[in-house]
Design brief:
With about 250 residues, this protein is mostly helical. It contains eight helices and two strands, in the order αααββααααα. A two-stranded antiparallel ribbon has the order 1-2. Residues about 1-5 have low confidence and may be disordered.
């Protein structure tokens, strides 16, 4: 059975998981509550610094942000031409406004700052520590367990899909014409059937081991001084950002 993709080690692993989750939430809320472009640029620079301290390579960060950046790019390209305001330029007879461009830049900075914070603080935790962090901030245990199981078995379903695709190629399958749509429909159906069979086997195995529907609950260790210092620094930074946003 294939395991989930390995999580790279981070320099932030010394901090408690629940503290990293709380810091991410606090800073993300502060960034989302800010509209000034200059403050958002400062928040984005701070997020880049945190990402650099996490030990992630630039290639790993870009790979993780690729899917979200496609949606952000779509919004950014449309905002200048759909937001009324002072004309800035015209492209093929359609005017772009200065206000729309301002909103687009703000969205880019906000989205990337939040994504970088989540990637560096939460995305570098292994599933076990992530579950501990989510449970430590009060997320219901059932939801945490479902999240961990989903992350664990997504890799298994991807492995099954790759096996079926390889079997199709071994039978000289080529994606040409409408007949290929039927083949992909069968592929999707087989992946769905095998995922249901896998889920039933996993449920039976867990029941044989005495699973009663709730994950085992362990008492979280007390916070250390560096954990409290990190949380306090995040609260101060968030308060400063929100205060500066109200003043400007």
């Amino acid at each position: 059975m294939p395991d989930s993709p390995p999580v790279p080690s981070s320099r932030l692993d010394r901090f408690a998981p629940r503290v990293r989750v709380l810091v991410t939430v606090v800073l993300a809320v502060a960034v989302l509550a800010t509209e000034d472009v200059h403050l958002l640029a400062a928040a984005f620079a701070a997020a880049v610094l945190v990402t650099a301290l996490s030990g992630l390579t630039a290639k790993a960060v870009l790979r993780r942000l690729a899917a979200a950046e496609a949606l952000v790019l779509l919004v950014v390209l449309s905002l200048p031409f759909t937001t009324p305001g002072e004309p800035l330029l015209a492209l093929w007879g359609v005017g772009a406004s200065r206000e729309g461009l301002h909103h687009a830049v703000a969205i880019v900075l906000t989205a990337n700052a939040v994504l970088l914070l989540a990637t560096s603080l939460i995305g570098t935790m292994d599933p076990r520590r992530m579950g501990q962090g989510l449970h430590g901030v009060g997320i219901p245990p059932v939801l945490v367990h479902l999240l961990l199981l989903s992350g664990r078995y997504v890799a298994v379903l991807q492995h099954e899909q790759r096996r079926l695709r390889l079997a199709m190629k071994a039978r000289a399958f080529h994606a040409r014409g409408p007949r290929a749509w039927r083949a992909y429909g069968h592929l999707f159906g087989m992946v769905l059937v095998r995922s249901l069979e896998r889920a039933e086997r996993v449920r039976e195995a867990m029941a044989c081991r005495g699973f009663d529907g709730l994950p085992p609950r362990r008492k979280a260790p007390p916070l250390q001084r560096h954990d409290i210092a990190l949380l306090a620094a995040a609260l101060v930074a968030a308060a400063a950002l929100v205060t500066a946003a109200r003043v400007m």
